[in-house]
């Protein structure tokens, strides 16, 4: 599974509608509204790199109200569970 983190700048007056439209796209697992210079962060989870282009370039970028995007590909996930296991000394 490949994960991409997509920073989305949106038309300020349409952020909730843009977020809902992005969340409804196949391949998008989560959308978060954020503070700061980025309005939304979308997590895209797909099977191969070509699917990232299909989700982001072909669909997400075309959602009405999306002004700009910046996509980052995740190399490795460090979940809280993984970190706890890595630092465990075997005590339960």
Please describe the topology of this protein.
Layout: E1 2-10, H1 15-23, E2 28-33, E3 40-46, H2 49-56, E4 66-73, H3 80-86
Care to describe what's here?
This is AsnC family protein. By secondary structure, the chain is α+β, with helices and mostly antiparallel strands. The chain contains three helices and four strands; from the N terminus they run E-H-E-E-H-E-H. It has helices spanning 15-23, 49-56, 80-86; strands at residues 2-10, 28-33, 40-46, 66-73. A four-stranded antiparallel beta sheet has the order 2-3-1-4. The longest helix is centred in the N-terminal third of the chain and has 9 residues, at 15-23. The chain is globular. The model has no long low-confidence stretch (mean pLDDT 90).
In short, what is this structure?
The protein is an alpha+beta fold and 92 residues long. It has three helices and four strands, in the order βαββαβα. It is globular.
Low-confidence stretches: none
Overall spatial form: globular
- SS strand fraction: 25-35%
CATH superfamily: Lrp/AsnC effector binding domain/regulation of amino acid metabolism (RAM) domain
Level-1 CATH class name = Alpha Beta
Number of helical regions: 3
What portion of residues is helical? 25-40%
Strand order of the largest sheet: 2-3-1-4
State the CATH topology.
Alpha-Beta Plaits
> Whole-number average pLDDT?
90
Count of DSSP strands = 4
Number of domains: 1
- Using only CA atoms, what is the Rg? 16 Å
Structural class determined from secondary elements: alpha+beta
Q: SSE string, helix = H, strand = E? A: EHEEHEH
Termini gap: 31 Å
Please name the CATH architecture. Answer: 2-Layer Sandwich
Largest sheet: 4 strands, antiparallel
């Amino acid at each position: 599974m490949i994960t991409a983190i997509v920073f989305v700048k949106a038309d300020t007056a349409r952020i909730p509608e843009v977020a809902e439209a992005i969340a409804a796209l196949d391949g998008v697992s989560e959308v978060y509204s954020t503070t700061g210079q980025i309005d939304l962060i979308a997590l895209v989870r797909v099977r191969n790199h070509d699917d990232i282009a299909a989700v982001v370039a072909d669909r997400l970028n075309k959602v009405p109200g999306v002004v700009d995007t910046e996509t980052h590909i995740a190399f490795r996930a460090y979940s809280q569970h993984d970190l706890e296991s890595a630092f465990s000394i075997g005590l339960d």
